[in-house]
């Protein structure tokens, strides 16, 4: 069993996860990535040890991959791993907030009272989730998003950078909200919406 934390994924998102874990005082012992050309390299000075099959040796790990589908697949394939939370010391999280295992919250993010955040979510840099939010598993809320009170984001949804959501809205499962959109009506499952007000993207 490897001591310290393993990080799965060797891309840009992994750099921010490693930086966040180190800011918490955690020791990150290795990075895992299935792209074999990265093995033997480093990410922020942390060695890339091999592929995700090495998770079998992990005690604690975080999945640092932006794709919501890929995080779900890896988490489901490795139920024995202790998925830890990575919460930057300069994120502000109300004590009443519930955070699921494997979820990461980056610097400058604010999560207000009685919000529930599921497993393997990403609350990215300087995003805010206001009171009574319900964020389900495998959601990614990108940098600078602002969710007003009582917003629900269902499993696997992705909110692009700078999204705004008015109070009480629901974002459907595995939906995508384009960068800079303003959500003023509920969004159905498996939809891509863009713009202000956000509307389903029309394809030519
Ligand atoms: C730290 C980090 O980096 S975290 C990562 C954060 N990432 C993001 O925020 C990315 C968000 N992604 C987007 O907004 C994307 O543009 C998506 C998902 C909405 C659409 O992506 P694609 O399917 O590749 O769309 P594509 O680029 O082909 O554009 C298709 C059309 O939609 C329009 N469009 C794309 N994105 C948007 C948007 N956010 N708002 C308004 N219109 C948009 C394009 O202008 C284009 O219109 P046209 O056909 O009239 O020229």
Automatic annotation (TrEMBL):
Transmembrane segments: none annotated. Residues 5-76 form the PglD N-terminal domain. SUPFAM superfamilies: Trimeric LpxA-like enzymes. The keyword Acetylation does not apply. One of its GO terms (molecular function) is transferase activity. Keywords: Transferase. Pfam families: PglD_N. InterPro entries: AcTrfase_PglD-like, PglD_N, Trans_hexapeptide_repeat, Trimer_LpxA-like_sf. This is Hexapeptide transferase. It comes from Deinococcus roseus.
